[in-house]
Design a protein that fits this description.
heterodimer, A: about 160 residues, about 0% strand, globular, B: about 90 residues, mainly alpha, Helix Hairpins, 3 helices
Chain lengths: ~160, ~90
């Protein structure tokens, strides 16, 4: 049963990701990216990471994509060329992606070691965040504060 | 049964699609969305090797990155009237 869901979510994720890249209308790209994020959230459920699934939906679909949608709706994007214009740009992009896939295939697949799901519930994550990773956690709080100040400073008119 | 390398393959496919989008699109908003897609591909692989804390930190940094990036894009749009990626080459300093 989870096999069927795995293939459904995988096909959904890949098709919607391609739709993000290839659509000419930015609004359609945003909506496709929301579909892609929800299928990735489905993968999280299949792997047993329920808390991460909830955080993923709240942060990405709830906050980030709404921000994207607002910004796109505030701008008039009719006159922006959507794709690179020269054919050799496409060729160079394809060659770069092919080289990257080759590098991933040769290095990553040897060291990949999938583990049995067990410690991905809320309590172990919270304990790790407040004991082992307490300093990075506080640093991320400072990062958020500086981002808030920076966005306000950037967003106000001259 | 889901095969062993399936999540790694899926993550690599999504990461490649995101990279392709960063390289061939000219609208900065779409480029930022493709970067989000790449971050999510990495998150998927990290969840499959059971590293939930790193996924948590990547989500935090992604939220910060998007908010600052969209503020920058809005500022550049107000100045130049377009979000074409080549106008970002005119920024000084």
């Amino acid at each position: 049963m989870s096999d069927i869901f795995f293939w459904v979510f995988s096909v959904m994720a890949v098709v919607s990701a391609l739709s993000v890249v290839l659509n000419r209308n930015p609004i359609y790209s945003v909506l496709s990216l929301i579909v892609c994020f929800f299928s990735i959230a489905g993968h999280y459920v299949l792997m047993g990471a329920l808390f991460l699934c909830a955080v993923h939906i709240v942060v990405y679909a709830g906050a980030i994509m709404v921000l994207f949608l607002f910004v796109i709706m505030l701008m008039n994007l009719k006159d922006v060329p959507e794709f690179v214009s020269k054919w050799w740009h496409f060729g160079a992009a394809g060659a770069a992606v092919a080289a990257m896939v080759f590098g991933l295939a040769t290095h990553l697949f040897q060291s990949y070691n999938p583990r049995v799901i067990g410690d991905m519930q809320l309590k172990p994550i919270a304990q790790a965040l407040f004991t082992t990773y307490a300093v990075p956690f506080e640093l991320s709080a400072i990062l958020f504060l500086s981002a808030v100040i920076g966005v306000v400073a950037l967003g106000k008119s001259e | 049964m889901i095969p062993t390398y399936s999540y790694l393959v899926l993550g690599c496919i999504l990461f490649s699609i995101g990279t392709l989008g960063v390289l061939i699109r000219r609208n900065v908003v779409i480029v930022l969305m493709c970067i989000e897609l790449m971050l999510n591909a990495v998150n998927l692989i990290l969840v499959s090797v059971c590293e939930p804390v790193f996924v948590f930190f990547i989500m935090m940094v992604a939220a910060v990155e998007v908010s600052v990036g969209l503020a920058l894009i809005a500022r550049v749009y107000r100045k130049f009237g377009t979000t074409d990626i080549s106008t970002f080459g005119q920024l000084k300093g």
